[in-house]
Design a protein that fits this description.
This protein has 178 residues and is mainly beta. The chain has helices at 13-19, 52-63, and strands at 25-29, 32-36, 68-72, 100-103, 109-114, 117-122, 139-143, 148-154, 158-165, 170-177. The chain has two helices and ten strands. The protein has a seven-stranded mixed sheet with strand order 1-2-3-4-6-5-7, with helices on one face. A three-stranded antiparallel sheet has the order 8-9-10, with no helix packed on it. A hairpin with a 2-residue loop joins strand 1 and strand 2 (32-36).
């Protein structure tokens, strides 16, 4: 999903051309559908909960027949990292049908449990690793010692999410069930 670095030139054209996607879109796989958003303030269709993009997401989640629905975007609604919370992205994702919300932007890993719902920040893909500014309420797991990636294993009745660092050490592991 695009973010501030992708909009850095003032246009998203290089990103869109390279990946062959729209600014926000969905992609279905077996048992899971991923909904990619553009959370940058340059997004022409808006980034508020009543924007055209949000209305698209609400309808797309509602019409999805997939067991697991993941929403991904750049700016985290909750973060203890350098950039802190992007409060404007606290849309009612779970009320609309999402099962997991994943974002980036801050160069760390953090998992939140807010009102029984999981939010993951994964920004350890390769840029400089950064520390935490102020620990936000609901933060249940933090890691910023090394780079890594999320591994999602999707099953009919469960979704397993692991954060594995580049030394192949699992730093976080959570399983959601239905």
């Amino acid at each position: 999903s695009p973010g501030n670095h992708d909009w850095g030139t003032g246009t998203l054209a290089p990103y869109l051309n390279y990946f062959g996607v729209k600014r926000y879109y969905n992609k279905a796989f077996t048992n899971v559908e991923i909904f990619m958003l553009d959370s940058d303030n340059h997004e022409p269709d808006g980034i508020t909960v009543v924007s055209n993009q949000a209305l698209w997401l609400k309808m797309a989640l509602k019409s999805s027949k997939m067991k697991w629905k993941l929403v991904l975007f750049h700016h985290p609604p909750y973060s203890s990292g350098e950039h802190c919370n992007s409060v404007y992205m606290r849309w009612p994702f779970y009320d609309w049908g999402a099962n997991l919300v994943i974002s980036g932007h801050d160069h760390d890993y953090e998992r939140f449990l807010i009102n029984g719902k999981n939010y993951i920040v994964n920004g350890l893909g390769g840029a400089d690793i950064r520390g935490y500014k102020k620990i936000v309420s609901g933060s249940v797991k933090r890691y910023n010692k090394n780079y890594g990636a999320l591994l999602l294993n999707v099953f009919t009745d469960k979704l397993n999410i692991q954060f594995i660092d580049i030394d192949n050490i699992m730093q976080d592991n959570i399983t959601l069930t239905k």
